[in-house]
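User: Can you predict the 3D structure for this chain?
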Amino acid sequence: MVDERGTAAERIEAARALIRIADRVQLDRSANDLLYPEIVSVCQGELSAVVDRGVARLVAGDHPEFDLGVQLALFINALAPSEPEWAGDAGHRLAAAHPGDRALRELAESGGGSAHPCCPGV
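Assistant: Here is the predicted structure, written as structure tokens:
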């Protein structure tokens, strides 16, 4: 549909804007809607930056009323194929921030059921 309407650039900019605020705004599992390969490839910087900010927020004890950990885990998993070392480190940092069971499961279930580099036993 994006090709048919010629809205690929707008779709990427909309996704980029949502990714930038994902450490402050609930997206929950609908964050998956942002993670098409073409969006992930052009928004790697935004994704890694929001993960870093979100993990820092959780480490500081600032747990929002939404499941920030799941959103961050989804973003980490989306970057894992292209940035495996970064994803492993980010996953460890997220796990250490006690993001909740859903986030830990999301990290562990990434890659079609194979364990995430950060949490092989989860």
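The chain has one domain: 2-109. Confidence is low (pLDDT under 50) at residues 111-116.
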